[in-house]
Amino acid sequence: MNPKEFNTEKKKRKWFRVLLNKYLISAVVFIVWMLFFDQNSYMIHRELDKEINELKHDRKSFSEKLEKEKARIEEMKSDSTEIERVARERHYLKKEDEDIFIIEEKKVRKQVEESQKK
Asked: Which structural domain, as residue segments, surrounds residue 93?
């Protein structure tokens, strides 16, 4: 065996020993376990971060809606006709001598489509 072959063989054995080192194997297994399989894995944290960002966005939109509703409440406190309008449109309230007719858009559209077919 010439010295060049001996050195090549020695290098192969060295890498083989390094790769089979119990500490290296343990570290690789630990890292893989923590990244993918553990309860606090990287993947779970990524999903939770996405959910947190969605909740922050929802919180912002709900805050904006809340501000609009507060402004609307203030408007209704100052204007009694606005209260009456909301009561009639949203809650279908009426005066004693009035009759309310509720027309649903779906039924109207259906009737219009049927009349167009004829």
From this structure: 42-102
As a three-state string, the secondary structure of 21-58 is: CHHHHHHHHHHHHHHHHCCCCHHHHHHHHHHHHHHHHH
pTM over 0.90: no
Measured CA to CA, the distance from residue 57 to residue 62 in angstroms comes to 9
Is there a domain that residue 116 lies in? no
Contacting residues for 83 by C-beta, under 8 A, at least 6 apart: 76
* Domain match, 58 and 91 both: yes
- Tell me: the pLDDT tens digits for 37-88? 877 778 888 899 999 999 999 999 999 999 999 998 898 888 888 888 888 8
**Is residue 68 within 8 Å of 75, Cβ to Cβ?**
no
Quick one: which of 46, 27, 26 has its CA closest to 36? 46
Packing angle of the helix pair 42-78, 80-91 (nearest 10 deg)? 130
Q: Which two tokens stand for residue 63?
A: 């805050």
